[in-house]
Queue: 2 jobs
Job 1
Amino acid sequence: MSDSDGLAKREHWGSRVGFIMAAAGSAIGLGNIWRFPYLVGKDGGAAFVVIYLIITLFIGLPVMIAEFAIGRAAQKAPVLAFKALNVSPFWSLIGWMGTIAGGFLTLSFYNVVGGWTIKYIISSLTGLMEIADAGNSGDFFSSFIGQSYQVIVFQALFLAITMGVVIGGVSKGIERACKVLMPTLFVIMIILIIRSVTLPGAEAGLKFYLSPDFSKLTGETFLDALGQSFFSLSLGLGIMLTYGSYIGKEEQLPSSSAWTAGLDTVIALLAGLAIFPAVFAMGFEPGSGAGLSFITLPAVFAKMPAGMIFSFLFFLLLFFAAVTSSMSLLEVAAAFAIEKFHMTRKEAVYGVGFIILVLGIPSATSLAGGPKIYGKDFFDAAEYVCNNVLLPLGSFLASVFVGWFWLPQAIKEITNDGKLKFGWLNTWIWCVRFVAPLAIAYIFYAGLKW
Ligand code: TRP
């Protein structure tokens, strides 16, 4: 396509490694380091981990392959992708639901927590350790989130950094940032793990984390594990579909998906390994819910020698993880604005960024009290609707679409027109046709409660 016909060629990833780093950057985020460990703590330890791994292998990974295939075939962001594939307009629902409801809503609470990480990086170096040492990390956290203007300022800063990268584009912005940030994140993680497992008394944490007690499983465990798998792999909102639309035709979808899901899972498992031994060694409880990273861990760090450094490194890690994920969410919304309204990338990023900033305000202020939606504050309600409704529903529709309405084309796409051998093809077909839709439908039916 030449420039003279007015359509710029669609930008693609610069290299295979770059693409995998970007996809892993999207997947690896607050979900892995903040959310996964606290769910493990809440849902009974190792038994949750086992369920999580099974769900990720048989549901998460197949759905990811499906999203990549749709995206690469369409070469469009989710809202216009299904039109480009010439299928019933019904399926565009996946795009609208993912981009508009899911993308904006997820970013509205994701950026709030992203902002917290910046606040905590700074506080780690400026007195958080003394406060936590005196047993006041809980008060510190509640007084911080109780001051909405602070939360909004840090959220805006986090959003501005994300926008700065996304304006740079797919390969020069997102890919380049992820290629630096993801390896750095890995190195920090290893340092934290070495510190954690060598603390005296670390064994109790290892045992909690690694030896399963299946009597602790409940219906909620399965719903949590499923929601977490989709959230962690960035599925159900068309994120991977969009990233797939920047993949070249010669690329291998199954192995790229396996790398992305594999790295994501490894980092989640490593986060647990960094956190639980230290929590137990210092005599704390792991089941403190969302406060695990922001209340319990500062107290844990405060008791360690040179805790300030480890606290700083931990929140830096959390920030890197969060910002590479929020880039993907912003990219999808921006790609939508670029394709649908023919905006330039800059206009799209500014426009979308502004909307997200405004939408984030209820999430940020709701933590300081305020109106409740049937008993949940806005932040919790947004998180609940995204994780327990929109992500499973989006993934359900994507697997039904690929498994029942688009299978021959999907197989062509995944095998690069038959040129690529994919040994697990039949297992994959089985998973997208039966395992994923049925499991999602059942878990939905059994576990959904406000
Ligand atoms: N996967 C990211 C995390 O683990 C969050 C995320 C980014 C996400 N993009 C997404 C979640 C799309 C759901 C859908 O933190």
Job 2
Amino acid sequence: MSPDPNTSTAHPGGEPDTGSAAVTVQVPAKVNVQLAVGPPRPDGFHELANVFLAVGLYDRVTARPAERLELGCTGPDADRVPLDGTNLAARAATSLAARHGIEPAVRLDIEKDIPVAGGMAGGSADAAGALLACDVLWGLQTPQEELLEICAELGSDVPFSLVGGAALGRGRGERLSVLEVGAEFHWVFATAEGGLSTPAVYREFDRLTGSAAPEPQPSEALLAALRRGDAEQLAACLANDLEPAALSLRPELSRTLETGRSAGAAAALVSGSGPTCAFLATSAQTAEDVAGALREAGVCRTARTATGPASGARVLHDRTDRTATNRTP
Ligand code: ATP
């Protein structure tokens, strides 16, 4: 069922009155600390070695009973979020309902704080959030394995948004192994005006590398740095194979990266497919200093600090009278 265009509006303030039952789920953004990209596969996807770290910038998704699927979105980027059946949160609710043979009779309200089309998996976060929120609202108690299967159908980054923490993603990034992380890392994220389309960045990657991309492998040194919680070692290993493609499409990002490095970041890289730039700092104070320098230089739209690893999708509020189902996946 498609969302009703008459009711699928952003709410600049206040909550829609759709009854008292409601489930709110919080979901983190991600940064790829390593993104090794292989040549394109016959199905068009690329084989990846994708080391994800969830970071403390969050979207919230609230699910409430409704007569049919409805969507709302608030936040600074809300006008760039589609409020129709293509929204990943709507697709998640529809997929879960179809699996259980029920109607997706739900209103989903997204409080969007993750940059849109920013290379931080914001849409994937909303999909994972909607999936968990609907599962709890509808009292389905879908096993984690099955939720992860639905996530993988919705998008390559969605399984990680559900799980959070840190993980190595193989295949197109959906086959996850959880990674140990020895400490909290301090990050700065510089958002840019406008977004970058992930498919366009992969096309540019193909144009720049041809079929010369080697089989992607995770870096043992990087995994060890994560395990030990060693920020300097991690800084030396950060790598994003999509960065040259993102910089080719948005050359001005080089200045943003350079500004953060000069201000004391231990490392700087484009986050995923960009255009958000990520900076690793060795302390909370250095992260604040780098964010201040980026703002002052006017090389980004916003500069925000966050730490990682952060928890995956988790239920913040459950007003369904089924508190036994209140859980994290
Ligand atoms: P990734 O890092 O996973 O490649 P991204 O962070 O660069 O993704 P998203 O914010 O997920 O990009 O948005 C990519 C596109 O997906 C948007 O331009 C928008 O058209 C569409 N989209 C669908 N659902 C959502 C959603 N809930 N939030 C944001 N964008 C969405």
